[in-house]
Design goal:
five-stranded antiparallel sheet; about 240 residues; OB fold (Dihydrolipoamide Acetyltransferase, E2P); five-stranded parallel sheet; 2 domains; alpha/beta; about 30% helix; 7 helices; Rossmann fold
Length: about 240
């Protein structure tokens, strides 16, 4: 672990998103959360008064975009962008951002991004205080729906269905529909808990009631296994 901790600032106009970042940062010994801000103007005032090594910066915020805010800084700290919109990725990397995290952010993906900061500046590795699962981290995701972020426990999810530009997350507690690609949410889900069985379906492994070469049954629903994923699904389930 490095002698000096990395001073982090989290900037996001959505309180649930800030809560996720605060939990993730607190679980990594090398990181120190020195502040949170709800917009870029507040963030600018903060970094003028405090030393900040790394900003977790939301892009779509009121008053000014996170990308535009970064351009105003003459000597910006290292930046990891956080956003629900993949379309900003190219612009983020053009601004020399360390990484680009697509919401909902998994703890595993968060660690991968912060390790890039460590490799670039401190040549160290991250140390985690406790296992994320025991601290309540990485066992849920937030989904944007009806202008708010909805918390969904991973253990409650039955399966996820893609419907054009939207996904439908079917859980034991209800169904949430959000504008997001199935591939982007697949990247955030723990691979030991979920598996892609079709271009339109991801299923929770623990919720599978029965299966054959072509179909999986979950909560009395019959879901197709496409030919593209058939071998991988069969191999994965046989190992369980």
């Amino acid at each position: 672990m490095p002698d000096k901790k990395i001073n982090c600032l989290a900037v996001d106009d959505e309180p649930p998103a800030l809560d996720v970042l605060k939990k993730y940062i607190s679980s990594v010994q090398a990181l120190e959360l020195v502040g949170t801000c709800s917009d870029a103007v507040e963030a600018l005032n903060f970094i003028r008064q405090r030393s900040v090594d790394l900003i977790f910066l939301d892009i779509q915020m009121p008053q000014i975009l996170g990308t535009d805010f970064l351009r105003t800084l003459k000597k910006p700290p290292k930046v990891i962008f956080t956003t629900a919109f993949r379309k900003f990725a190219i612009e983020g990397f053009e601004l020399d951002a360390v990484d680009y995290l697509l919401k909902p952010i998994s703890f595993e993906r968060f660690l991968k991004a912060v390790n890039k900061v460590m490799d670039a500046s401190l040549n160290g590795t991250l140390s985690v205080d406790v296992e994320p699962q025991k601290q309540g981290i990485e066992n849920y995701i937030y989904l944007r729906s009806d202008r708010k972020m909805i918390k969904v426990a991973l253990e409650d999810i039955l399966y996820i269905e893609s419907i054009k530009d939207y996904i439908k997350v079917i859980a034991t507690t209800g169904t949430v529909i959000t504008k997001q690609s199935i591939s982007s949410i697949e990247e955030t889900l723990p691979k030991e808990m979920f598996i892609r069985i079709h271009r339109s379906y991801i299923v929770s492994v623990n919720k599978i009631e029965s299966y054959n070469q072509e179909l999986i049954w979950i909560a009395k629903q019959e879901l197709p296994i496409s030919r593209m994923y058939r071998h991988e699904v069969s191999r994965f389930l046989q190992m369980k």
